[in-house]
Amino acid sequence: MSSLPYSKAAFDEAARALIATTAELAALGWTPATSSNFSLRLDDRHAIITASGRDKGRLTEDDFLVVDHAGAPVATALRPSAETLLHTQLYARGAAGCVLHTHSRTQTVASRLFASAGALRIEGYELLKAFSGNSTHETAIEIPVLPNTQDMTVLAAQVEPLLDAGPLWGYLIDGHGLYAWGRDIAEARRHLDAFEFLLACELDLRRLS
Amino acid sequence: MSSLPYSKAAFDEAARALIATTAELAALGWTPATSSNFSLRLDDRHAIITASGRDKGRLTEDDFLVVDHAGAPVATALRPSAETLLHTQLYARGAAGCVLHTHSRTQTVASRLFASAGALRIEGYELLKAFSGNSTHETAIEIPVLPNTQDMTVLAAQVEPLLDAGPLWGYLIDGHGLYAWGRDIAEARRHLDAFEFLLACELDLRRLS
Amino acid sequence: MSSLPYSKAAFDEAARALIATTAELAALGWTPATSSNFSLRLDDRHAIITASGRDKGRLTEDDFLVVDHAGAPVATALRPSAETLLHTQLYARGAAGCVLHTHSRTQTVASRLFASAGALRIEGYELLKAFSGNSTHETAIEIPVLPNTQDMTVLAAQVEPLLDAGPLWGYLIDGHGLYAWGRDIAEARRHLDAFEFLLACELDLRRLS
Amino acid sequence: MSSLPYSKAAFDEAARALIATTAELAALGWTPATSSNFSLRLDDRHAIITASGRDKGRLTEDDFLVVDHAGAPVATALRPSAETLLHTQLYARGAAGCVLHTHSRTQTVASRLFASAGALRIEGYELLKAFSGNSTHETAIEIPVLPNTQDMTVLAAQVEPLLDAGPLWGYLIDGHGLYAWGRDIAEARRHLDAFEFLLACELDLRRLS
C-alpha cells in the first residue's frame, strides 16, 4: 500500500463523500440504469472516479478507482467510466475540484430540445446567484449543448474553447445529460442543483406559454 | 451567556422547530441550491433566522442567528440572509410569528408567469379554507407578484401597502419564490402548503385547458 | 371506560390502522394543509373518524373520535370533521367498512376540469380490475363530480341516488378532492390508488393528445 | 420438504431478492393498487412468481409460489398471477432469467398513446446503451405495444414472433403496462429503468414540441 502514488486516506475520505452524494442523486432518479459518473480531485496529479456501469444508489469504496489527470487508471484493475476524460480535462486545467455527471429526465429532455440551437440561455432567476461569482439575478447564463459522440477526445476538444471563454459551471450533451463542477463537492452539488432547477423551470414555462 | 438580550432557551427551542420544518421542505425540493430562508419570532424585539447560504436539508443550531425587528444581527458574528428585512418587517408590524420563504419550482414558475399581471387570483377551491380566517370555498384570494430586486428596502416598501390592505398570508417575488407566514410555525406551514398546492393546480389547469 | 357504547379495543386497533394508512397518504402529498379525513366502521352503530384540522402526517390516537352512523359525536369532546356525514351515510347504508377522503393535486385538478360535465368516464385500462367486482379491462366506470358546498346535507342528498344506482367506489367533489371506500381499509386503499392512477393517466392523455 | 422438485434454498434466496426489488418499484409508484407481477428463474424447469393480488410494497415469502415453465403451479395452494404465462414463455425459450412487469403511469400512458401505431421507436439517447448488447447511442429500438386481452394464450402467441425477430428487452400492453426482462434481476432492473426513463423523455418531448 505504501507504494501508492496517492494518499490512501484521501482516497477513503473522497470515496465516502462521493458515496453519500451519489446516493442522494440516485434517490432523486438522476442516475437511471447505472448511468452517470462522479469524480473528486485527490491531488495535483490524481482524481478518484466511479468505475464503469455500477448502480449509483449502492456504491461502495470498491466501485471507485484512481486516474491521473490525463484519464489513465493508476494502480488498479478496474475500468474507469468511458467518459473519464471529460472529468480529468477539468482537473488538468485546474478548473474544478469535483465533477458530477448526471442523467436526469429534465437534463436529457432539455438537451434534446436545445441541441439544434447549441445552447440554452437562462436569465432573470434569483437562483442564478447559486453559480459561483454571480451576485445578482440581473444576469444571464448560457448552457452549451454539445452533440453526443462515443469518442471522448472529440467531446473534450469541444469543451476546451468553452472553458477558455469561461466562466463555465457545466454543459449538456445531447440525449445524454449534464456535466456540472465546482471547487469542491458542495459547490459542484450547488451548481448541479441550480442547473436542474433552472432547466425544469424553463421546460415548464415552455409548456405553459 | 446571561448577558444575551434574548432567551437562549427560546432560541434553542425555535432552532429545533425550524430545523425539523426546513428538513421537510428541503426533502420536498423547495430549497434548491442553498436558497430559501426561515425565521421565527422570539420576543417583541427579536427573531431567529437562518444564516446566509446554508444547505437547508442539513441545518444545525449553528446555522441560525438572532436579529432584531429592524433586521440587525444581535450578539453574533454570523451574516443573516440578505432578505432578512422581508422577515422582520412582518415581526415589527406584529403581522406574523413565523415566516417561511421557499423556492419551489411551482412557486418560481408561477411567479414568472404572473409577474406582468402583478398578481394571481385563485378562487373556488376547498383548500382556500386553509388560510386563517376563511371558512368557505366560496371566496377568492389574490397572491401578489412583486418584481425582484437585490435591494430589500425597495421590496419591503412594496410589501407595506399590501399588508395595510390585508388580510395577506403571503406573496410571490418574480423568478424568486414565495414568502408565507402565520401566527406560529404550524400556521405558516399550513399557509405555505396551501399556496404550493393551489399554485400547482392553477398551473395544471392552464396546461390542460 | 367500561360504560363506552363501543369497544375500546376496536377503537385502538382502528386508530392504529388509520394512522399507518394516513401517514402513507400524507407522504404522497394527498393531504395538503391539514385537509382530508379518514374513517373506519367500528360496529353496526359506530365509526371512528379523524378530528377536524389535524396534520394527517402526524396523527396519534388522540386525533380520532367516535361518531354514530348519523354523524353525531359519541362520548367525546373532540369536534369531528365537517364532512363526517359523507362518511357515515355510507356506514348507515352498509355500503362501506372504510372511507378515505383525500385531496391530491390530480384529484383536485380533475374535479375542476370535469365539474361542468358532472362526471368523468374511464375505460379500457387494465387497472379497472382493481375495483371490486370488475374482472376485465373491457369495461368503463363513471366517476361522478359533485358541486362543492359547505352544507353536507346537500352533498349527502346528492350522493344517495348515486349509491342507489350503484355499483360505486367513489366520487369527486369540485375543487375539493375524492371520496373512495371499500369493505375494509385494504380495499378502500386499493380503490383510492386506482382512482388516483386512472385520473392521472387521463389528465396526461389530455395534455398529450 | 425434501420431496419438493426444486431447491428450497434457491426459492428463499430468489424471494428475498424479489422482495427487495419490488419494494423499491412500489415506492416509485410503479405497482398501483396491487397490480404488477415479478418472477425469477429457479432452474431449467421452475420459476418463482408473485401470487395474485398482493400489495407489492409489503411482500413476504408467503406471497410467492413456484410454477413450471408452462405456467402450472407446483406443490402450492396459492394462485399465480393471471399473467404467469407471459413470464414462463420467456423462461421456456431461455430468453430471460428474470421478468419484471410493472404498471407505471408513464408506461400506461405511453401504451395508450402508441397502441394504434403498434410500436414506439426510440433513438439517439445515450441510455440506449443500457440495453444489453448496445454499445452506442447511434442506434434505435422499437418497443412493441400489444393490444390488451384477458386471454394470456392470445397475448403469448403475439409475443412469440417478436422474440423470434429479436433482440427484445421488453414490450408494452395497451392500457396495462410494461414487461421487461434480463439475464438476472440486475439486468432486468436496468432494462426496466431504461424503458421507464426513455418513455418519460419521449412523452415530455411530445408535450414540449
TrEMBL record, chains A, B, C, D:
Zn(2+) binds at H101, H103. Residues 16-203 form the Class II aldolase/adducin N-terminal domain. Pathway: Amino-acid biosynthesis; L-methionine biosynthesis via salvage pathway; L-methionine from S-methyl-5-thio-alpha-D-ribose 1-phosphate: step 2/6. Pfam families: Aldolase_II. Binds 1 zinc ion per subunit. Keywords: Amino-acid biosynthesis, Lyase, Metal-binding, Methionine biosynthesis, Zinc. Catalyzes the dehydration of methylthioribulose-1-phosphate (MTRu-1-P) into 2,3-diketo-5-methylthiopentyl-1-phosphate (DK-MTP-1-P). Belongs to the aldolase class II family. MtnB subfamily. This is Methylthioribulose-1-phosphate dehydratase. It comes from Coralloluteibacterium thermophilum. The gene is mtnB.
